[in-house]
Structure formats: C-alpha cells, structure tokens
Amino acid sequence: MKKSADIIARKINDIHLLLPMRATQGGHYAYELNEVGAFLWARLDQETKVDALVDSVCQEFQIEAINARTDVENFLREMRAEGLLE
Fold this sequence. Notes:
By secondary structure, the chain is an alpha+beta fold. It is 43% helix and 17% strand. It has one domain. It has a 3-stranded antiparallel β-sheet with strand order 1-2-3.
C-alpha cells in the first residue's frame, strides 16, 4: 500500500497534519498524526509492506514487534477506512 497522491502533509510547529484535497470517505478535511503516524506516513511514498513498516517502527522507537505491529495495523486500517491509501 501507499499514500494517495491527493493528500498534502504538513508539519506546523510540532503538529503533523494530513490535508486531503477533497473530503475523505469519513467526511474529514484534516487529520492530525502523532509521532508514530507521521513516521509511518513518511514511509508510504511508494508501495510498502506491513512487515517493513513494523521493522522500521521497532528500530526508530525501540519497541517490541508485537506493539509495533498493533500500531502499524491500526494506523493503516484507519487510513484505509478514510480513503487516504491506495
């Protein structure tokens, strides 16, 4: 999976935002990402596998694989549900 092309990502001060160019499936016009979400979003420029994302999160945030997998899967599920991923 990878991010949709019509999403603008911005960091304003310490706030990471996703700004769709149109309303998403959930009717939202902006999303605020936490640190892990912003980290994951930055890695979705090209087609990316879940296992690679989990490994990256483990290394970056020094957490166990089971916790990283839960975070990654929850993030991807939410982004997919909103139509932010291809």
